[in-house]
């Protein structure tokens, strides 16, 4: 038996205490906030006295803070849109994690080009005019309007290797007042000023009000924030729009040169750290966070009323949105590469099998690229890294909510491919298929085994989920069925138990439950095969799949299948089954056809290239090795251009069904939540 003296006992007690403190510190870490001035440090220290987990770090500038956060010396800072952009660049790789929510009437600035109503020029006629700006490098007076004019090729600038941005602007306008610019370096940009050309009261045309005075007395156009035009003077002015039209001052939301995003807290990409930062801030009162004793907008905006936790997927691009991101990209000196003039369409293929088919088609104007899922294709097309992909209606809605457009639809009726009616588009029915004689009906589906095209897919998941779980709190298909195959579900969950993988003897398990053709039970044909071979009791697919994979149709695995051996079940006939050809009476819902989705900027080119591809490749465009619906559905007869809007193509009823499945943020896709945050303006 070991005996310890008093000094040893004291040492052990001390060591044990240190260990407890270290463990507590590890599980309850400090949050290091970066501040840029003594006034911010004073406020931060005051907040720290109320929440000791907050530690304050003073740095000389925002750039020093970004560097400190990247290196782990600090954890967070609140910044404006320009610095969200800067923090997202490769040398920092920081992400927005929390957004400010603003009080009513405090929406961010829309940069507008204001002109006198009795003039008649449009934005294409701006060259040679006199311009008035609120202040150099301010959002409304410089960054947004100048960046947009470069982006739209109104101001021609080849980048910093050619000349400075300021010189390009001075060559565009005949004279300007840009308070804050170097008068010695760019005298023409101070030529229209009435004072010392500084961003101080020493310049009569300084700030938004000054820019309006400049317009009234000497200028042709004033670049200001929409809410700074004097109310009693609004009838005297109009706005220049980027489409070469003019609109009323009241129409600033549809006629502006850029919108300033709200401020955001940025940090390293670390979910645990982000959760810790939001948890700490949630413990502090709004009156403490959003007030600035001895200054203005210290740490947070004084106009903010709360904070919003951003979805984990959010990066600087998703937060800022494409318009602002492109403006910043142009303003920083690389405007030409922001636009790709190439005719080649970069096609987003989901998985290796789709890319192999795309490569084999050898289409001269199509570049075949790859992503792991449709969810990955959407942001890549948003960013311009890729141009187009085909998907079902559920993903079409997600893309629509992220500002993409549906441009060409699959047509499954060969006769309609040659119809003179250009408004005809195809659709299909979602059906629930069971084996004849199984005794499975709509009323006894609970706890059965299910086969789905993919997690969060339209026909295979969202529609049955909306019907089976309607009015049932906390219901999901994970809980409704005992087990199943829903490719894309978390490996190890009950919705991966029936999945098969690639079926290959070597490496087959690596593909199990993947949301791509690498999983044998993925997609419409895969869900049907899950019913046939995988032990499923019901498959949620589209109505044309059973006829296309039975009675001598389809690949080798279907050669012995007879359509008469399968039936349909549906809510309308809850206790009985119907024959396969009765899909119009017994279905879960009609839904729009699959379609090609792209970004509005490249719409015309994508449509043109796909029409040419149809002529060149013919039926090969819609054929897949093994009948796997690669790139397009194998049942497609042709692609038809969608003439109306994406929402019109989807139909109001379908949109309502899917949006109803987004009743809570927990049910809506993370990407959709990132795309649809309402600019953080509080609705009252």
Automatic annotation (TrEMBL):
Hydrogencarbonate binds at residues 141, 453, 457, 459-460. It is found in: Secreted. One of its GO terms (biological process) is iron ion transport. Disulfide bonds join 34-65, 44-56, 132-214, 177-193, 190-197, 241-255, 348-377, 358-368, 402-675, 451-530, 485-499, 496-513, 570-586. One of its GO terms (molecular function) is metal ion binding. Keywords: Disulfide bond, Ion transport, Iron, Iron transport, Metal-binding, Repeat, Secreted, Signal, Transport. Fe(3+) 2 binds at residue 524. Fe(3+) 1 binds at residues 80, 263, 392, 428, 594. InterPro entries: Transferrin, Transferrin-like_dom, Transferrin_Fe_BS. Residues 31-333, 345-663 form the Transferrin-like domain. This is Serotransferrin. It comes from Triplophysa tibetana.
């Amino acid at each position: 038996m070991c005996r310890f003296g008093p000094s040893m006992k004291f040492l052990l007690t001390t060591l044990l205490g240190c260990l407890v403190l270290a463990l507590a510190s590890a599980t309850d870490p400090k949050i290091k906030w970066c501040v840029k001035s003594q006034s911010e440090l004073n406020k931060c220290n005051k907040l720290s006295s109320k929440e000791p987990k907050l530690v304050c770090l003073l740095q000389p500038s925002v750039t020093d803070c970004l560097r400190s956060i990247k290196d782990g010396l600090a954890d967070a800072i609140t910044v404006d849109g320009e610095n969200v952009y800067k923090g997202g660049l490769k040398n920092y790789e920081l992400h927005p994690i929390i957004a400010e929510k603003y009080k009513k009437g405090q929406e961010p600035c829309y940069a507008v080009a204001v002109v006198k109503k009795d003039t008649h020029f449009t934005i294409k006629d701006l060259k040679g005019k006199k311009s008035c700006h609120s202040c150099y490098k301010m959002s409304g007076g410089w960054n947004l309007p100048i960046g947009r004019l470069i982006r739209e090729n109104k101001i021609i600038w080849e980048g910093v290797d050619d000349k400075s941005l300021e010189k390009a602007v001075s060559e565009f306008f005949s004279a300007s007042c840009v308070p804050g610019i170097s008068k010695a370096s760019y005298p023409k940009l101070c030529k229209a000023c009435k004072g010392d050309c500084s961003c101080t009261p020493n310049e009569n045309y300084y700030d938004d009000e000054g820019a309006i005075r400049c317009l009234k007395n000497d200028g042709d156009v004033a670049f200001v924030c929409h809410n700074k035009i004097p109310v009693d003077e609004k009838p005297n002015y109009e706005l220049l729009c980027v489409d070469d039209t003019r609109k009323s001052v009241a129409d600033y939301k549809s006629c502006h040169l850029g919108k300033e995003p709200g401020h955001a807290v940025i940090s390293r990409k670390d979910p645990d750290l982000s959760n810790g930062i939001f948890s700490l801030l949630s413990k502090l009162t709004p009156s403490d966070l959003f007030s600035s004793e001895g200054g203005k907008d210290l740490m947070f905006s004084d106009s903010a009323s709360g904070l919003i936790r951003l979805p984990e997927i959010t990066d600087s691009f998703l937060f800022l949105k494409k318009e602002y991101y492109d403006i910043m990209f142009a303003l920083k000196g690389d405007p030409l590469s922001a636009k790709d003039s190439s005719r080649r369409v970069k096609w987003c293929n989901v998985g290796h099998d789709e890319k192999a088919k795309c490569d084999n088609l050898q289409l001269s104007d199509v570049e075949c690229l790859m992503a792991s899922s449709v969810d990955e294709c959407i942001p890549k097309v948003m960013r311009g890294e890729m141009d187009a992909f085909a998907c079902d209606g559920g993903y079409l809605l997600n893309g629509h909510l992220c500002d993409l457009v549906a441009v060409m639809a699959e047509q499954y009726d060969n006769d309609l491919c040659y119809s003179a009616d250009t408004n005809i588009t195809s659709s299909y029915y979602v059906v629930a298929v069971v084996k004849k004689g199984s005794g499975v009906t709509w009323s006894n589906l609970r706890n059965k085994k299910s086969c789905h095209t993919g997690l969060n897919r339209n026909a295979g998941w969202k529609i049955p989920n909306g019907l089976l779980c309607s009015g049932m709190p906390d219901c999901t298909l994970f809980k409704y069925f005992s087990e199943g195959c829903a490719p894309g579900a978390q490996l190890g969950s009950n919705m991966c138990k029936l999945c098969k993988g690639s079926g290959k003897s070597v490496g087959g398990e690596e593909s199990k439950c993947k949301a791509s053709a690498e999983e044998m039970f993925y997609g419409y044909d895969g869900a049907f095969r899950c019913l046939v071979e995988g032990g499923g009791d019901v498959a949620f697919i589209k109505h044309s799949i059973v006829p296309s994979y039975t009675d001598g149709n389809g690949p080798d695995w279907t050669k012995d299948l007879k359509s008469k051996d399968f039936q349909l079940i549906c809510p309308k006939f809850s206790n009985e089954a119907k024959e396969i050809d009765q899909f119009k009476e017994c279905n879960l819902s009609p839904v729009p056809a699959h379609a090609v989705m792209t970004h509005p900027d490249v719409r015309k080119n994508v449509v043109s290239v796909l029409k040419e591809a149809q002529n060149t490749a013919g039926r090969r465009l819609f054929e897949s090795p093994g009948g796997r619906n690669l790139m397009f559905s194998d049942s497609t007869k042709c692609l038809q251009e969608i003439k109306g809007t994406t929402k019109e193509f989807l139909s109001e009823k379908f949109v309502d069904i899917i949006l109803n499945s987004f009743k809570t943020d927990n049910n809506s896709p993370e990407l959709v939540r990132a795309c649809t945050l309402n600019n953080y303006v509080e609705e009252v």
